[in-house]
């Protein structure tokens, strides 16, 4: 058992592109999202995935704040960026399951498939929580479509 675990661990390390400094990182997009499937179990996995993004981003913010001085210009810039909600996923008034369904709906449109999941989730969460209007939502989605994603 111990030997099997060691082999699996070594395989994961060797095959992991993120540990080898991959220059062109591929964010998970609509094509990857579809690979989870559409069954009820898949929607649960998608909801947990979105929860992981939300918690990971909060952890990142906390680590950044711990390393900065409060009078640092970068601190103020980051604080303003966070307040703008560009990467923030807000599920107040909804659930991660409902957010997963909203992301699913966005990816039904072929034009949205290349947009990274974390951006779609952030935008969809802001729409679900009433922070942005439908018109603003569609304007921002159009801007994301226009960007040349790899």
What does this structure look like?
By secondary structure, the protein is mainly alpha-helical. The protein has one domain (23-146). It contains 7 helices and no strands. It has helices spanning 2-15, 30-34, 40-67, 73-84, 96-107, 117-128, 134-146.
Q: What's this model, at a glance?
A:
With 150 residues, this protein is mainly α.
Any descriptors?
64% helix; single chain; mainly alpha
State Rg. Answer: 18 Å
Element order: H for helix, E for strand: HHHHHHH
Task: Report the total helices.
Answer: 7
Number of beta-strand segments: 0
Give me the secondary-structure category: mainly alpha
Share of helical residues: 55-70%
Separation of the first and last Cα atoms: 40 Å
Total count of domains:
1
Task: Give a short account of the largest sheet.
Answer: none
Mean pLDDT: 75
Low-pLDDT segments, ≥5 res:
4-22
Strand % is under 5%
Approximate shape: globular
